[in-house]
Write a structure and sequence with these properties.
single chain, alpha+beta, Alpha-Beta Plaits, two-stranded antiparallel ribbon, 2 strands, about 10% strand
């Protein structure tokens, strides 16, 4: 979800994160994915946080009738942990998604992250990439 509704969607998602006492730092993405940098509230798991964010934002998007059909996020997600010393770099990376994806597709980006973090994966279980 990217376009004229993006600011309202990101504001809504930020509010959801704030309700759970997470600290949303930046959200940005492209039509086929979104990056969210947050300071996690340790009372909640990453999987519960993502599930709640996807469920609630899907309902929000569908209630707004922004799309002709029913919207739903794909299954799955990627979550990566960074130290405080990397926050500025990650923030700038998320901020500059449009420029970044002129050089690299989402698929290439995601596989590069999996390799960087030394995460074993089978390509048949990755997201459906829309390129």
């Amino acid at each position: 979800m990217h376009g004229r509704f993006t600011p309202e969607l990101y504001s809504y998602m930020g509010g959801l994160l704030n309700q759970k006492k997470h600290k949303p730092l930046i959200m940005n993405g492209r039509p086929d994915h979104i990056h969210i940098l947050i300071g996690m509230n340790p009372k909640f798991s990453i999987s519960d946080t993502v599930a709640d964010l996807k469920r609630s934002s899907s309902l929000f998007i569908n209630e707004k009738k922004w799309l002709r059909g029913k919207f739903q996020w794909q299954d799955g997600y990627g979550a990566f942990s960074y130290s405080r010393s990397h926050l500025d770099t990650i923030y700038k990376y998320i901020l500059n998604q449009e420029e970044h994806h002129k050089k690299m597709t989402f698929r290439e980006e995601y596989i590069a992250l999996l390799k960087k973090f030394e995460i074993d994966f089978d390509e048949k279980y990755l997201f459906e990439f829309f390129e």
